[in-house]
Design goal:
- Chain B: This is Na(+)/H(+) antiporter subunit C.
- The complex is a heterodimer of chains A (about 800) and B (about 110).
- Chain A is an all-alpha fold.
- Chain A folds into 3 domains: about 425 residues, no CATH class; about 140 residues, no CATH class; about 50 residues, no CATH class.
- In chain A, about 70% of the residues lie in helices and about 0% in strands.
- Chain A is built from 34 helices and 2 strands.
- The longest helix of chain A has about 40 residues.
- With about 110 residues, chain B is mainly alpha-helical.
- In chain B, about 65% of the residues lie in helices and about 0% in strands.
- Chain B contains 3 helices and no strands.
- In chain B, helix 2 runs antiparallel to helix 3.
- Chain B is elongated and about 60 Å long.
- The chains are: A mainly alpha (about 800), B mainly alpha (about 110).
- At the A-B interface, helix 27, helix 28, helix 29, helix 30 and helix 31 of A face helix 1, helix 2 and helix 3 of B.
Chain lengths: ~800, ~110
């Protein structure tokens, strides 16, 4: 079987779900859905042995062959690890959701359609080898995540959170698309494998750093790195299975996957190392520091997720240094990559279980507010055990898997001292210090999470429901994850060989040909000479002191005003966009036709004048001109006088008659310039027009009613200047175009053939009805339409029926 | 002569634009009338004004005025007449319905005003 279709299996299964939900209402839809991830886990599980030995798999499904776009599924250690995480935790989450979501009260059909859509999208992201299909699946995760966060769409907070995550992740996604396109253009291929092959050639290109920064923006927004993490805490409005799945184990790791996948391409750049490591460390500290401030269980976990993602991100950054060093140092820095992938796996296990416990507490007590909870230990012993395992693992305490990866993290950060390029030798010390402080806060919030919830005084009067232990089915999934947490601690190298080493070999293809070359073993005990050991002990000690004194120093959070917070900035930015666009359009869209006419005429002046100026197009030639005769001057003077009369008169009648006079002088011009048909038409039409004007004038008010007072001077001055500008432009263009005639007229043909071909003597009339008869046909149509329109306007009187409101004459 | 005509046409355009920018509906329509006069004269002028005879075949004449611009203008005159008539009736109806011919007062619609 062609394994690329496994990606599409969940999305195909969505077609059945509405049917199952509607028709088979006696069985919870989740049981059917559960089959999909279980089948996929087993399917991907069969690839583990061969991937361990260094094989990779490739499968292609053409999509748009003419543009060379196809779905290419590439399975190596990295994508297999992620695929197993997605399907494995997916299965547990579906199982958990069966007990979490009520089959009668909830719209389960929607939920599982979105969830399976998301699963397909994630599998697509981690297996795509083609940049465009990667982007396609990437945006599909954004959309399905948006739908899932807004699952309870009647709640304001859900809609707000969904919109916020959409805005931020789609912003990043579009930036990433830009980066992909740059990569595709400079590398002349959209295949990631082929791009990796020519990485050193690419890194010399001018646009390389742009591609790097844009792709990183995509990764940072998706993985909730500083300062884009703000959407993640608000996404906690989603149902808890969604938070556990998307916002701890899978979607937020898409950014990490992206960084890991592109490391072989971008790691040659210094910018990459600084950005990935620096932003990661900053996020780690920021997230852990603010997690203690939160009072909502899920918000604590959200900030903790942010912080842990920062940790993994910084490890990936340190791992990239391996591309810049030689000899033993390669192994030293590749160790960070190894630690990153290990922690990524560990984080998925303990964070998934913690989210599920938070959901259980919410489900069984009716609140997630840590200030109302407490003393649940005796009521919910199983949940407590699971939460304790998860929290201690998160804090980095043995005997749980978090301890192993946290130790490796500290060691990797300390390894930075061996790197002396890019001024790292003087700055490296900052990284272990910040990492250590962040670890202290991680320790504090982990204890805070578990002990403030389960220890202390029970406050039943503050809880909406009487607290009791969750049903067994709900505890299965977090139980399995918590068991994994312990198992990984005791047999870490089994997981290391099966999952981590193949992934490391995929990220560092230069250092390792096959996964078995990766020579790391995970040890719980490093001996007394390991500095990481003392750092860990320090974390425990200081962390415990901090935890005991939380009420004393937590006031420090209140000193930071909410306006300068990143959420405040996001809200401000949204408001600014909204009101700014509003203000902008209300400035130029006034509703007054005169303003729009001013823009148009000004544009004519500026564009035409500017073009003439730039192209130096003005020309004037005095040869080939017709002679000036007395009559023409006389008529011109009459025309000017008539026009000025229209401009200055205060009487409507005078204006109309002057317009008539201008029309008749135009007719005189036609006579002088040998155009008898024109003169005839002009005379007739001018007469009819004047009659029409007189008819309309009878019904219209006096002319000078509106133009009065001193404030009108500015109005008239602008009008005059614009009018003058248009007049001058027309004159200049007319003179220039007449002076630069390039081709002879085609009229000689008409003159020569008018009698022989058309049998007429009046050339103008023959042109109108014979040579260019179509013009005349449609000109007749214009007149017909105009007269029909006039009849319609006069005879049709559709009055609005609602109310007899008459518009007052203002 | 063409240069003189160009200046005259520019003047007509100036007057037309000035009128179109005013507040009164009637002045705006008068402005469009002047604008079409200017345009027609511009067409004629750009065709060249040197023709000695009207473009009607007659014996012994070879130097006819260019007939093509004249045909174009004839079409344009008729069309602008149709438009002018339509807009005049429109103005009349507008004033009947709204009770004003001041463009500044004709903003928005009944619903959002």
């Amino acid at each position: 079987m062609s394994f690329i279709f496994a990606i599409f299996l969940p999305i195909i299964a969505t077609l059945l779900i509405p049917f199952l939900f509607k028709k088979v209402s006696s069985i919870h839809t989740g049981w059917f859905v559960l089959l999909v991830p279980v089948v996929l886990v087993i399917f991907y599980g069969t690839y583990i042995p061969s991937i361990m030995n260094g094989s990779t798999y490739l499968d292609e499904l053409p999509w748009i062959p003419s543009l060379d776009i196809s779905f290419i599924s590439y399975l190596d250690g990295l994508s297999l690890l992620f695929s197993l995480l997605i399907t494995g935790i997916g299965a547990l989450v579906v199982l958990y959701s069966i007990f979490y979501l009520d089959k009668k009260k909830e719209k389960l059909g929607n939920f599982y359609v979105y969830l399976l859509m998301f699963m397909s999208a994630m599998l697509g992201v981690v297996q795509s080898d083609h940049l465009i299909s990667l982007y396609f699946f990437w945006e599909l995760t954004s959309i399905s995540s948006f739908l899932l966060i807004g699952y309870w769409y009647t709640r304001d907070r859900s809609r707000f959170g969904a919109l916020k995550s959409m805005m931020i992740t789609v912003f990043g996604g579009l930036m990433m698309l830009g980066g992909f396109l740059i990569l595709g253009i400079i590398g002349e291929t959209f295949s990631i494998r082929e791009l990796i092959g020519q990485a050193s050639a690419l890194s010399g290109h001018d646009l390389f750093v742009w591609a790097l920064v844009l792709v990183l923006l995509g990764a940072f927004t998706k993985s909730a790195q500083f300062p884009f993490y703000i959407w993640l805490p608000d996404a906690m409005e989603a149902p808890t299975p969604v938070s556990a799945y998307l916002h701890s184990a899978t979607m937020v790791k898409a950014g990490l996957y992206l960084v890991a996948r592109f490391t072989p391409i971008f790691a040659l750049s210094e910018v990459w190392i600084w950005l990935v490591t620096g932003v990661g460390i900053l996020t780690l500290f920021w997230g852990s520091f603010f997690a203690v401030k939160q009072t909502d269980l899920k918000a604590i976990l959200a900030f903790s997720t942010v912080s842990q993602l920062g940790l993994i991100m910084s490890l990936l950054g340190i791992g990239s240094i391996a591309y810049h060093v030689t000899g033993d140092l390669v192994t030293t820095f590749t160790f960070a990559t190894f630690a990153a992938i290990f922690h990524l796996m560990n984080h998925a296990t303990f964070k998934g279980s913690l989210f599920m416990i938070a959901g259980i507490i919410d489900h069984e007590t009716g609140t997630r507010d840590i200030r109302k909870l407490g003393g649940l230990l005796s009521l919910m012993p199983v949940s407590f055990t699971i939460a304790l395992i998860g929290s201690l693992s998160m804090a980095g305490v043995p005997p749980f898997n978090g301890f192993l990866s946290k130790e490796m993290f500290l060691e990797a950060v300390l390894n930075l001292q061996h790197f002396d390029l890019y001024a790292m030798d003087s700055w490296w010390i900052l990284f272990p210090i910040v990492a250590w402080i962040a670890s202290v806060f991680t320790f504090v919030y982990s204890l805070y999470f578990v002990f403030y919830t389960f220890r202390g005084k029970h406050k039943p009067e503050q809880l909406p429901k009487a607290a009791h232990e969750a049903p067994i089915g709900m505890l299965v999934s977090p139980g399995i994850l918590a068991t994994l947490v312990v198992i990984i601690f005791f047999i870490p190298n089994f997981f290391g060989n099966a999952f981590i080493k193949p992934a490391v070999a995929a990220i560092q293809p230069l250092a390792y040909q096959v996964p078995t070359d990766v020579g790391f073993t995970i040890k719980a005990w490093h001996g007394f000479d390991s500095p990481a050991l003392y750092m860990t002990l320090g974390v425990f000690l200081v962390g415990y002191l901090f935890y005991k004194t939380i009420p004393k120093w937590s006031a420090v959070y209140n000193t930071i005003p909410s306006k300068v917070s990143l959420n405040g900035m996001y809200d401000g930015l949204m408001r600014l966009g909204d009101s700014g666009a509003n203000r902008f359009s209300s400035i130029y869209m006034t509703g007054s036709i005169r303003n729009y006419l001013v823009y148009m005429f000004a544009a004519i002046i500026v564009l035409l004048g500017g073009t003439m100026w730039i192209k130096d197009a003005f020309a004037i030639r005095f040869d080939n001109l017709a002679p000036i005769r007395f009559f023409e001057i006389l008529i011109s003077i009459i025309l000017i006088v008539g026009t000025i009369t229209i401009l200055v008169t205060k009487s409507r009648l005078t204006a109309i008659i002057a317009l008539g006079a201008v029309g008749f002088t135009v007719a005189l011009f036609y006579i002088i310039f040998k155009a008898p048909d024109l003169a005839l038409t002009q005379l007739v039409i001018e007469t009819v027009s004047v009659a029409l004007f007189l008819g309309a004038f009878y019904h219209l008010p006096k002319l000078n009613k509106h133009e009065k007072g001193k404030e009108d001077r500015g109005f008239r001055l602008t009008n005059f200047l614009i009018a003058l500008g248009v007049g001058v432009m027309v004159t200049l263009i007319a003179i220039s175009s007449h002076s630069q005639k390039l081709k002879l007229s085609i009229s000689q043909y008409y003159k020569d053939t008018v009698y022989s071909e058309a049998g007429g003597g009046n050339i103008v009339n023959v042109i109108l009805v014979d040579y260019r008869g179509f013009d005349t046909l449609f000109e007749i149509s214009v007149l017909t339409i105009a007269s029909l329109g006039i009849i319609g306007m006069i005879t049709l009187r559709l009055v609005k029926k609602k109310g007899d409101r008459k518009i007052e004459n203002k | 002569m063409e240069i003189l005509m160009s200046i005259l046409i520019g003047f007509l355009f100036m007057a037309a634009v000035y009128l179109i920018l005013s507040r009164s509906l009637l002045r705006i329509i008068i402005g469009t009338g002047l604008l079409s006069h200017g345009t027609h004269l511009l067409l004629l002028t750009m065709g060249g004004l040197g023709g000695k005879a009207a473009p009607v075949l007659s014996d012994g004449v070879t130097d006819y005025a260019d007939p093509l611009p004249q045909a174009l203008i004839l079409t344009a005159i008729v069309i602008s007449f149709g438009v002018t008539a339509f807009s005049l009736v429109l103005a009349y109806r507008t004033y009947n319905e709204l009770g004003t011919d001041n463009m500044d007062l004709m903003k928005g619609t009944e619903d959002n005003d």
